[in-house]
Amino acid sequence: MKILLCCIAKMENLYLRDFVEFYKNLGVTNVVLYDNNDKNGEYPQQVIGDYISNGYVIYKDVRGKHRCQIESYTNCYKEYGDDYDWLLFFDVDEFVELYEDDDINSFLSRPKFDDADCIFIYWVQYGDSGLLHYDNRPVWERFTEHVNQYLNESNTFKLMVRGKTGLDISFFDANAFTFTKKEGVNITVKNTAGEDVTEEYPYQYWCYDFAALAHYQTLTVDEFLCRRFGRRSYADNASSFNKETIMNIFYSVCERTEEKDKIINEFLSKFDLEEDNV
User: How far is CA 236 from CA 19, 96, 215, in A?
Assistant: First the structure.
């Protein structure tokens, strides 16, 4: 079985090598990486140049493009959908946890997925685990305490899509797409238990049988601030970066402390929204 992982990266160099090696060890055949860094920003080649050179990582240059994740996902499936048995669409802060299988090939080869065109794999979200600052350990070693899933009731899954099916897919969200297939034939969507997922109730029945997707959503407070402001080009207006919005996002999954408040306040007091001065 050939399995392709599609991802898009902006300001991910601190985490990118761990991500690529994690999925290589999990049995993913290739990674397609869309480099969406700023024109003058970091390059993935600085940390995974060897994987790009040997062809394990297929590099795509979308540097400086605004809001191109959905377009990149769609282009990836159109270009590679006939070459791979499964295509996984994950972010660099998302890691598959398999509970009964040793590798992703074994998981996807389970008979319960024989008629599946798409599998929803649901988030297990992690906050900062009480840590304040970056260190170079892999995220799964640093952050070990997951948060209450009910704190975030939307966008709580990602997709694994079967290839070689003749599907014509166009993504309109990171976890949703439209498709065309043979007339009168509907796409079959399963959860990780192999149960049918209906169009009306994709969120209500979270399933953590056999597998889940660990989502390291905030990391530490200093990483959260640097990544969010460093990626500011994705926002449509500066209101996304006001103090109240920033703190609400972070504290929606992390415990609030005076020390974290101080770090946030000091960062925001130095940041000029007119300049990229992270």
Answer: 29, 31, 25
Helix (H) or strand (E) holding 228, with range, is helix 221-230
- Give how far Cα 147 sits from Cα of 40, 89, 98, 152, 231, Å: 36, 23, 19, 10, 24
CB 163 within 8 A of CB 82: yes
Give the integer Cα–Cα distance in Å for 69 and 91.
Answer: 10
Q: Look up tokens 């991802």; give the residue.
A: 7
pLDDT in tens, 170-227: 898 888 888 776 666 678 899 999 998 876 555 556 788 999 999 998 999 999 988 8
State the angle between helix axes of 221-230 and 258-270 in degrees (0 to 180), rounded to the nearest 10.
Answer: 30
- State pLDDT tens for residues 2-14: 999 999 999 999 9
Other C-beta atoms closer than 10 Å to the C-beta of 108 total 20
